[in-house]
Request: fold
Amino acid sequence: MSERLQKAIANAGVASRRKAEKLIAAGHVTVNGETVTAMGVQVTPQDAVEVDGVPLTTEQKVYYLLYKPRGVVTTAHDDKGRKTVVDLLTGVTERVYPVGRLDYDASGLLLLTNDGELANGLMHPSFQIDKTYVARVKGIPVGEQLKRLEKGIVLDGKKTRPAKVKVIRTEQAKNYSIIQITIHEGWHHQVKRMFAAVGLPVDKLSREKYAFLDLSGLSAGEYRSLRTHEVRGLYDLLETRGESVDN
Reply:
């Protein structure tokens, strides 16, 4: 059975499919000793695939839920020597990578896995996976600001999908508010930029939920393996959303 080269790399746990495509284009991948830079090349288990001279091996699929603390980079490696989310997974021997990202100064729920198929599906905008954040913002929101967030904000010429917004608490004397927002995309600095666009700059940000998963039982810096029913639930969610997209 054959599959696309970038998918084979992702399924081997080397990188996400998107990153695998970049590795291929940059000439880091060989198939049967020949460098491949074109997309769409089909490979089989009998083909010898190497990334930077390291042969692909099929790892057991693993899934982790991390409570990312602030001041940690959401990447597997950092050329500036900063602590990464992978550094926090002590004892994990598989090559895992984060599903999406969280800002350096943000905290909260982050998934890491070597399952390229699941990671690629969760990050694809068509599936509209719910991501719920809690933000501490400067100012006290008024109805018009909340409505703009709910309807979507134009960022770099593109409008965000409608969001769910809930004011948790306001502190008139200190002029700040705690607001919960649920979005579907994962654009760069998206939540901060959305709040800034309506005049409510973010002081502090945390992702509290991802799909049906939350941070129950974890403190900042801690992680746990996903349970079998949770992994199955994520795949079921993608299948359901995929059917909605197709229809």
The helical segments are 5-11, 17-25, 116-123, 143-151, 190-197, 228-246. The mean pLDDT is 91.
